[in-house]
Design goal:
Elements: H1 3-11, E1 20-21, H2 22-28, H3 34-43, E2 55-56, H4 69-78, H5 90-93
Parallel strand pairs: 1-2
The chain binds a DNA duplex through residues 2-4, 21-23, 26, 31-43, 52, 55-59, 62-66, 69, 72.
DNA sequence: CGGTTGACCAAGT
DNA sequence: GACTTGGCCAACC
């Protein structure tokens, strides 16, 4: 299993209605490859089984999405996540893999 | 095997 | 608040 697969596996643990960050994912994997995590997400566009849209920047900004941020925002909103000024409140919606 | 590219991050100015 | 800098690491060429 490669690095990317580990990212996806971990990402699948994030429940609907919550988000995580590239930093949190890398941290949970025991690496500092924050950027590599972003690359991994980018390679799996809207793969049906991987909720890439629940991954945002460590500062609460949205980050990116292979198929357009609008799509990402729509998905997040449909899960009940409120977005204000292109930002998400991590204290409220963040998931830290406990 | 070096060099470049990111959906990054933290600290400094 | 906004830039800039240096560092990080997998994937690709």
């Amino acid at each position: 299993m490669g690095f990317k697969e580990q990212c996806y596996d971990l990402l699948k643990k994030v429940p609907q209605g919550k988000v995580t960050t590239y930093k949190a994912l890398a941290d949970a994997l025991g690496t500092k490859a924050y950027r590599a995590v972003g690359n991994a997400m980018n390679k799996n566009p809207d793969a049906p089984r991987i909720p890439c849209h629940r991954v945002i920047n460590a500062n609460g900004a949205l980050g990116g999405y292979a198929h357009g941020l609008k799509r990402k925002i729509s998905l997040l909103k449909s899960e009940g996540i409120q977005i204000q000024n292109n930002r998400i409140n991590l204290d409220q919606y963040g998931f830290d893999f406990q």
